[in-house]
Amino acid sequence: MTASWQGDAGWGIDAYIKRGGYEALKKILSENIPPEGVIAEVKKSVLRGRGGAGFPTGLKWSFMPRTMPGDKYIVCNTDEGEPGTFKDRDIMRYDPHSVIEGMIIGAYAMGATRGYNYIHGEIYELYERFEAALAEARAAGFLGQKILGSEHSFELFAHHGYGAYICGEETALLDSIEGKKGQPRFKPPFPASFGLYGRPTTVNNTETFASVPFIIRLGSENFLNAGKENNGGTKLFSISGHVERPGNYEIPLGTPFATLLEMAGGMRGGRKLKAVIPGGSSSPVLPADIMMQCTMDYDSISKAGSMLGSGAVIVMDETVCMVDVLNRLSFFYHEESCGQCTPCREGTNWLYQIVHRIETGEGKPEDLDMLLSICSNICGRTICALGDAAAFPVMSFLKHFRSEFEYHIQHKTCLVPKDVQRSGSTFHRHPNAA
Prior knowledge:
Blueprint: H1 13-18, H2 23-30, H3 35-45, H4 57-62, E1 73-78, H5 87-94, H6 96-110, E2 114-119, H7 124-139, E3 155-160, H8 170-177, E4 201-205, H9 206-218, H10 220-226, E5 234-241, E6 247-252, E7 255-256, H11 257-263, E8 273-277, E9 286-287, H12 288-291, E10 295-296, H13 298-303, E11 312-317, H14 322-336, H15 342-359, H16 367-378, H17 386-411, H18 418-423
Parallel strand pairs: 1-2, 1-4, 2-3, 5-11
Antiparallel strand pairs: 5-6, 7-10, 8-9, 8-11
């Protein structure tokens, strides 16, 4: 997917068409491939949602009651706001037409009449770029009435969010588009039957839609074979933390983590790997020895006790204090809770308060069991998954690094000395330092 990107100079429609863009859409319309055939092709590719849940995309598309009269919607979730995740903004920056083409194909397959791309509030320049790409696509006849002379009509709009993390949750996102406060809805009903403006709606991630043209153009079998069984295709991974070359890397699903780490230049300064958060800050942390045995796919990471999530790999070396890391993560989820559910609103606050007092040397021996008790009273008891997202890091940090928390409580300081932490952190380093 990224092999043909040409940087900032190649995001426009002319460059996209030169590298095969819109050929998949033309193929569908010229060969009169029925919508059911498109959905079957996506199912055979085993494309799984790239936003975090990993749900099979073709199966999700089949839930849409496409023959129901009236408007039906598809929505692209570009509300990328989880710490460590930055792949979708590169797709929007360098290849926005792949998202547009994927959404047009999705609309054809599901019988949708209108679509929205919900773009995170803190990347306004990419919202402007997407608007420019939409104008190009309309002028070329790929959007609007009777696309390329066919009976298929579809209009697509960009929607600029405000930057709230909760709006990445699909029903909060729909409320935000409707002009309401972005808060999750109770499910059921699910968006497939009662979504945007009460109409059938399918929500997919940016990378998911961008993958669809490749499936149609190259064939579902080729896409599946690029990955591994039950994990079709390649995927973008955002690597941050203590590696030599942080950034986005596209690799076949099923690639060993050790290979991905090597592509990112290995551990910064040759230090020892301590832990990895493999799928964005809400996914459970894994110690180095477990992570080094994993391959980068949904099934392997799940078997190891975590989640592939959005593919945001946060790498930590031996200079990291795990209590300090959890303190920062807990603050983020406390700040981003929408406050609608009591277990989440109160629970995330308590999690942060307790972790923070442990970090600052005021922890009590009973705090660790209290943290686990609070987590058990959050998980599965909230309208959306933000409560679980706040609890999973706490439970996994205590499971794998409990001794560091106990040391903090007993000695009122970090197990990893402060000078060691500073030696490995650019956060503490003066920008002009050598």
